[in-house]
# Entry
Amino acid sequence: MAHKTKKMVIISGYFSGESYGLLGPQMAATIINDHTDYHAIVVGVTNEDHPQALKAALSRHFKDQRKVVGFSSLGGRPDLFELARELKATGAVTILAGPQAGPDYRGEVGWQTHPHRFRGLSDHFSFALHGPAQQIVPVLAAGFDRISAFDGILFRDNDDRIIENPPIPWEDQYLSTVDWGTLYRLKGTVFEPVTITTAQVLQQIGCPHAARCRTVSIDYPCGLVKADSQPLAIVIDQKGCSFCDVAADKGYMGSVDESAVQAQLAGLPAGSDGRKISFELINENPLFRLAGLIEMADELSITLSQINLTLRADYLLKGLRRLEGVLESARKKDIRILLSSIGFESFDDTILKNLNKGVTRQVNLDAVRAIRELKPKFPAHFGYLKEEGANHGFIHPTPWDHPEIACEINKTISMYRLSQDILPHHSTPLIIHHASGLGEWIRQIELRENIEFERIGTTIGWWQTADRSLL
# Structure
């Protein structure tokens, strides 16, 4: 790569002590480096990184240049929103991109007439970019004085109105290449490169469960249900799981072309043994294409080491026979298949219904039984245990955890020994992003009951309310 004087930094949330790649931000950095006059790096920022040290590192990196800083996959972190606001105030160009960039820039539905709602991040960022990363290429080429002309851009016009230009479609040619050497971490007040040990391969965009809109009925939070009243519910139209902001953002956009997947496989870094490093296959329904992926690697003389899968319990059961066939092949080739995350989320039918998971408690338990039976057959080449690096979905607490449900869940956990191998060390509290289906559920409850739920950044604190009639 020829030396470039223009610089860009893409900041993303990261977990301390890890060394995984960041597919979306690093793919964006690769596109910028290959198609513009800018050299982009990705900086993973943990909760432990000190804001002043980060700002000092940015100043050291850009020197006397105007800072151009993208923000992607922030996980709703207020500290990174505040950093963007401070950088913008000092003259930097700050760009919000990645999942939910559009809704987070615009703000929560109805915030103009309901001041307690999330008002959006348009004051924090120069503009937002929603949709494919290659839309930034003409913007960087033209400068930042006339961004109104470009696809996928959200910005404030001279009358302080938010204008949103529609994004372009996804193009496989830009999904082929990822430079995995673009990831850095903060050390002191400088950015140091990270050698990643786990990458990602994009085979599918979005989730098939989010392909079709359904009308769903979601129960009231148990704290708002009076003992002598009839059960209350809110009806919403929903694609995918009701808590999933990615389903609301992307829906289901289908498969990536095989040639792009081949290029991604070929571009994976190699470990010390010469094999490609472990990678997560980005495909919510991977078992029907997994054998083809391994055959593809063979045809390209690519030696794989480990494939991590994220999938739903029902998709696991539907593809179980195929998984067993893949494991037979994986054993011969010495490839490990890790079910790194199965989205169980709950073992109660009421909660699963309210999450619009599209599965039942029994489906989840059948999936547990199936993988337990597979493990002894392929002990070295099949993994699903938390001790093997898996972190299965288990959402707790939720707004529907009344004593009867809690008692039944605890009985199920004990009866099926789920804590032994399935449940993570720590559950994940239900997170309600303002643009998810549960965000609309919350807003309808607020209006109906004359209450307000606290907003915490881009999320809604369903556990805490204020009665407006008492304010």
Notes: The chain has a mean pLDDT of 94. The chain has two domains: 6-196, 199-421. The first strand starts at residue 6 and ends at 13.
